[in-house]
Amino acid sequence: MAARKGSMNRHIKTHTGEKPFVCGKCDFRTTRKSNLDVHVRTHTGEKPFACPDCDYRTADKSSMNKHARIHTGQKPYTCGECGHKMTLKSTYTRHMRTHTGEKPFVCMVCGYRAAQQGTMDRHMMTHKGVKGARYLKDTAAPGQTSDSQKSKAGSNSRIKTENGTKDA
C-alpha cells in the first residue's frame, strides 16, 4: 500500500504544480528526486551507464536501454498500417503521421502546418526577419487532421510491440 500512496502523492503533484526537488545550479524543478539526480548530471557531465559493446555512455538508464537496441536489432514498435518496424516510440509516433495526415506544428505567421518539427524549423526560415515569428505544436488548432482522416487511421491508434499490442 505504501508504494501506491507514494505514486498517488507524485501524481497529485502533477495537478498542483508542486515541484519540491530543485537544482542548485539552474532553475530546473521536478516532482521526483530521481529526475533531479539525472538532471544534475547535465551539470557534472557524469555518465555512469556504459554500453558493453561500444564507447557510448549516458546519464540515465532509459537512454542506455534504448541505445542497446542498436546492437540487438530490437525494434519493438510495428506500424499496424504498413508493417514498418521502429526502435523508438517517438519514431513510431512521427511515422504514424504519414498515415493519419496529422500536422500538429502550426506556423503562427502564415498558418502553414507540418507533421515534423524539423520541417517546421525549415519553414520558419522563410519568415526570417519577421518580428515575433513563431510556431506552436497545437493538436487542437483549427485546420487540424479531419475526423474522417482520424477514423481512416482507426487501427493505427494502437502500437504493436514485441510484448503485444497497446494503445498509443
From TrEMBL:
<dbReference type="Pfam" id="PF00096">
    <property type="entry name" value="zf-C2H2"/>
</dbReference>
<feature type="domain" description="C2H2-type">
    <location>
        <begin position="77"/>
        <end position="104"/>
    </location>
</feature>
<dbReference type="InterPro" id="IPR036236">
    <property type="entry name" value="Znf_C2H2_sf"/>
</dbReference>
<dbReference type="GO" id="GO:0010468">
    <property type="term" value="P:regulation of gene expression"/>
</dbReference>
<feature type="compositionally biased region" description="Basic and acidic residues">
    <location>
        <begin position="159"/>
        <end position="168"/>
    </location>
</feature>
<feature type="compositionally biased region" description="Polar residues">
    <location>
        <begin position="142"/>
        <end position="158"/>
    </location>
</feature>
<dbReference type="Pfam" id="PF23611">
    <property type="entry name" value="zf-C2H2_16"/>
</dbReference>
<dbReference type="GO" id="GO:0008270">
    <property type="term" value="F:zinc ion binding"/>
</dbReference>
<feature type="domain" description="C2H2-type">
    <location>
        <begin position="49"/>
        <end position="76"/>
    </location>
</feature>
<keyword id="KW-0863">Zinc-finger</keyword>
<keyword id="KW-0539">Nucleus</keyword>
<feature type="region of interest" description="Disordered">
    <location>
        <begin position="137"/>
        <end position="168"/>
    </location>
</feature>
<feature type="domain" description="C2H2-type">
    <location>
        <begin position="21"/>
        <end position="48"/>
    </location>
</feature>
<dbReference type="GO" id="GO:0005634">
    <property type="term" value="C:nucleus"/>
</dbReference>
<dbReference type="InterPro" id="IPR056438">
    <property type="entry name" value="Znf-C2H2_CTCF"/>
</dbReference>
<protein>
    <submittedName>
        <fullName>Zinc finger protein 771-like</fullName>
    </submittedName>
</protein>
<keyword id="KW-0862">Zinc</keyword>
<keyword id="KW-0479">Metal-binding</keyword>
<dbReference type="InterPro" id="IPR050527">
    <property type="entry name" value="Snail/Krueppel_Znf"/>
</dbReference>
<dbReference type="InterPro" id="IPR013087">
    <property type="entry name" value="Znf_C2H2_type"/>
</dbReference>
<feature type="domain" description="C2H2-type">
    <location>
        <begin position="105"/>
        <end position="132"/>
    </location>
</feature>
<keyword id="KW-0677">Repeat</keyword>
